[in-house]
Amino acid sequence: xxxxxxxxxxxxxxxxxxxxxxxxxxxxxxxxxxxxxxxxxxxxxxxxxxxxxxxxxxxxxxxxxxxxxxxxxxxxxxxxxxxxxxxxxxxxxxxxxxxxxxxxxxxxxxxxxxxxxxxxxxxxxxxxxxxxxxxxxxxxxxxxxxxxxxxxxxxxxxxxxxxxxxxxxxxxxxxxxxxxxxxxxxxxxxxxxxxxxxxxxxxxxxxxxxxxxxxxxxxxxxxxxxxxxxxxxxxxxxxxxxxxxxxxxxxxxxxxxxxxxxxxxxxxxxxxxxxxxxxxxxxxxxxxxxxxxxxxxxxxxxxxxxxxxxxx
Length: 312
Description:
This protein is of the alpha/beta class. 39% of the residues lie in helices and 19% in strands. It has 11 helices and 12 strands. α4 runs parallel beside α5 and α8 runs parallel beside α9 (226-237).
């Protein structure tokens, strides 16, 4: 084993939306006591979910599974209006943990729909955020996942089209899709500001720097986490071998054969203590220098909803 340096990406790990969502569930448990029901994984990380389950959170797929009158937290990925309607019918006490940046996309979808535009949503089919966004204007929204989808896209009024995007996409891949949309629909209306969130952009930028300096880049995240998968893709696109790991137990020592420098980052839904565990594992092979590679500073914070803001 020849490993002697780990390049640690900064920024990495939890974004403001994830931090807020987890804090909401923890505060709800403190204030109201268990059980607290949560629709979907509050964030896409099984370690986080399992930790909250041990405290008394119960995760369900749909609000129809929540007993009437119970407290239900809606995940950070956003929910369709039908979810809120069903929650009201069941007399649930809803605490909304939707990331404010996802809410921004929902507001855009509603605004475009009121103008009777066709809304092109750039995203990944089946992802919870995409399902929630599609639900804002289901009769006016079409999903595209890649350039070929755009090439094949036909709309009733090509001069009255807008686009929005999932917040956790690859910055580079999305740029190519948008360029194709602009070529096919020259009058297309864009969001007032990019929908891809600051944390996604920053973590991908940091991974690009790692990939230029390290032949191997490890990304701590979850296989159902869009931003985790995109970070691995970005590292590979910029010349590094890259693997997604949920924790140190998924590292294959063979990956490290002949490698002197490893890049390490974590997705926006991965807690910092997983980074510590991976570093401890890598130090087990001998003395390893850890160099933090800082690309940008982050100081974003989002306010808590009123239901838990006063909880201690």
